[in-house]
Amino acid sequence: MVHALERLVVRHTRRLPLPAASAGGGDGAAAARQFDAALMSAGFKLSTGLLEELSRRPRETVLAVAARTLDTVRETVGDHVRHNVYFIDFPAGVPDTVDFWRRCVAEALDDDTARPGLLARLRDGVLDLLTLPSYGTYRHTYERMLAAHDELVAAAGDRLTVLHPGGTLDEEATALYLSLAGSTTPLGDEHLRDLALLAAHRPDGPQPEEIPVRESRAVVNRARLDAGAPLLLDTATDVLRLACALSDGDVGLREPTRFRAMSRPVRRALLGGLDAVVAEAPAKLGDVAEHREAWKRLGERLHPHEYPRWPHAAEVFAVARGEKKAPSFDSRVEELLGRGDVAGAAALLTSAPGRLLRALDRLLRAADGPEELDAVLAAFESAVPRASGRVLLSLREHVQNRAGTAGERRVFVNRLGAAWVTADTRPPLPPAVRERLRAVLDAETRRRLPAPGHLLVDPAVLDVALPLSGRATTAGIGVLPRGSVSPVEGELLRFFTYWKQTARSTDYDLSALVLDDDYATVTWLSYTALTAVEGAHSGDVTDAPDGASEFIDLRLGAVRGSYVVPQVNLYSGEDFEEVEESFFGFMLRETEQKGRPFEPRTVRMKSDLRGPGRVALPLAFERGEDGGWRARWLHLYLRGNPSANRVEENRASVAVLLRSLLARTPLTVRHLTDLMASEATTTTWWDGSTPPDGPVTYIGLDRPEGLPPGSRVFTPENLRDLIPA
After folding, report:
1. Which of 171, 274, 329, 596 could in theory staple to 239 by disulfide, Cβ–Cβ 3.0 to 4.6 A?
2. Count of CB atoms within 10 A of residue 347's CB?
């Protein structure tokens, strides 16, 4: 447990929990320097303060911390696995695609075992590359591949992520727990798993004042139930989510959960909590119908008829079975809208501010005449002070993208990253209405933001999209929320993907699509096009029992188009959620920089591939007006085909999706910093110089060294904490 908690703290905060110092000092200076040197090979480094702190610890303690931390950071960048390549001297020596295929055929004809089958297939006129013995499997060991490459030539632009000193492990774990549990934005699946571990560590320890996200509350409630602590329940659905958590199901209630058999104490806790919720507010029975089938299945496990002392809990299951009527809140709203009573629907929705703001666009479009429009806007203004900050900012982003230009297309992205595009048939919102909405939302957001004091901002963070949902990003390093834009500085851009199958032979294909200004295809790199003017592909690997890697090298100066869209296609086998492990990333190098195909200190981004669909689109690269390149983060999945997905076949859908996404303007950190600057005593742009003497509120991509004590720091790892409650 201790090692797992330390791992979480390092991964989430880039802080290293400090072991206790020896009373008489320690002899860890030499070990700390060795630790620092080893970290640099993976693109990490100890801050000056952390190096000094570790030097005061015993040597054995430092070495133990170093071993655990190196494992953590190497996995963070993808250096915990062996990255082999099909073509041993990639990126040099990659053959022409057709020449390579001819060579595979010739080798098969020289193979007495393979020749008869190959000749039969050739007579049929169809040749499957996967049947050729030399195609798709490594022809050399990892060690031979390493011997074929020079050592990395260090460059000034190589990534160095600094680790800073933390408090004790208990202090750091508690702070991380409070941050995750109290987050105002929904957490991704990995962060929810981390929250579960932290909640189980100290269920009786400090708790956030509020756990506003229902999925997070379910995870915390499971730990509290195991520890015998009181449950945090205020809706019937809270109980359903907790039941899903107890069965390791989907607490987001998106996918059906197979409920496990539950002990009597657990059944009593769930039924007692459910009874108390309904007894206090019988109207909450109206929430049951939304998840009717799940309630029916849960009833089969809880046996509510065995507990007559909780009659209100039994009512929940009666509603689910249709034996008792309980109109839902949404059905009452729909009834009013069906009668054309838009003002009445808006008035009803004021009791549920979040729902009103989410339905606002529809209400405004349905309003008939100035009086009804004013009634909707009045309801909106009365609800704004009671809605969550995340909902306010989500609506603000929506409003700034509702100009309603003719020919626009709508992009839908669900909570799992699946995306689709359709024509936008909605009439535009009047400019005066949009301006009124923006003014009200900005004023309320400004009121809720903390007084920053001295605001210190790294300009590089301004175009990072606000993390309004933890599901808009993935676990890894250098990963930014969907819609973020970041500069790409380097001459060679190298994509990589790694996967390891669980049980079935699995073939993932790394590809890169190059598009012009009009999103028309210029070229692509994949197993069907190993070389192009732009660069080279490392070769197709079709089976990964021990893990497999594929790479694409791009010379940015040679790219003939305006957009480069890397993608990972599932050709056959296990999908992204079935494999044991899968991830994608990119490296940046200088033209003359030697090294292995995978060098951890050149990795700028690495993210897990876990999502629906069979085509993963982690990000895209676009050429700016100044000729420079920048990354735009997507974190999307296309449905694709059941098998044999290829870049050639999905290029049209990728182009349509990219065009539609680039037409949208996400709400970024710039929006919040502009609002905070009006309340700051001083606003300074961080240029890497000496930090100010007094405490600051720092917002940037990385935490600088030497910030004064008492400073508040917001980086991508905890940017969610900047979203007001």
Report:
1. 274
2. 17
Assigned token pair, 530:
């190993």
> Tokens 């197709």 belong to which residue?
540
- Reading phi first (left if > 0) and then psi (alpha if -120 to 50, else beta), residue 412 is in beta
Instruction: Please say whether the beta carbons of 222 and 229 come within 8 A.
Output: no
Tell me the C-alpha to C-alpha distance, in Å, between residue 124 and each of 119, 127, 223, 325.
9, 8, 62, 66
What is the number of other CB atoms lying within 10 angstroms of the CB of residue 358? 16
494: closest CA among 556, 559, 587, 568? 587
Question: Going by C-beta distance under 8 Å and a sequence separation of 6 or more, which residues neighbour residue 491?
Answer: 555, 556, 557, 589, 590, 591
The number of helices, as runs of H, and strands, as runs of E, in the chain is: 22, 22
Q: How far apart are CA 552 and CA 647, in angstroms?
A: 14
DSSP 606-658: EEE---SSSEEEEEEEEE-TTS-EEEEEEEEEE---SS---HHHHHHHHHHHH
In SS3 terms, 146-177 reads as HHCCCCCCCCCCCCCEEEEECCCHHHHHHHHH
Q: How far apart are CA 643 and CA 267, in angstroms?
A: 44
For residue 526, the 8-state DSSP code is B
Q: What is the DSSP letter of 125?
A: T
Name every residue whose Cβ is closer than 8 Å to that of residue 552 and which is 6 or more positions away in sequence: 494, 495, 496, 510, 511, 512, 525, 535, 536, 537, 538, 566
The C-alpha atoms of residue 620 and residue 461 are separated, in whole angstroms, by 18
CA-CA distances (angstroms) from residue 121 to 51, 112, 118, 127, 534? 64, 15, 5, 6, 35
The answer to whether 80 and 498 have CB atoms below 8 angstroms apart is no
User: Counting every residue, how long is the chain?
Assistant: 725
In the numeric block, which tokens belong to residue 330?
């949404």
Q: How far, in whole angstroms, is CA 196 from its chain's centroid?
A: 18
d(CA 76, CA 91): 25
**How many angstroms separate the CA atoms of 462 and 185, rounded?**
20
Specify the 3-state DSSP secondary structure of 202.
coil
Structure tokens at 261: 């058999």
C-alpha pair distances (Å), 12 with each of 53, 72, 158, 194, 701:
21, 11, 22, 10, 14
Nearest to 663 by CA among 398, 399, 410: 410
Q: Model-level pTM?
A: 0.92
Sign for the pseudo-dihedral over CA of 155, 157, 159, 164:
positive
Region 342-353: what's the mean pLDDT? 95
417-469 pLDDT per residue, tens: 888 888 888 888 999 999 999 999 999 999 999 899 999 999 999 999 999 87
- Paired tokens of 281: 């507010």
Residue written as token pair 């990395």? 152
Does residue 591 carry a pLDDT above 90? no
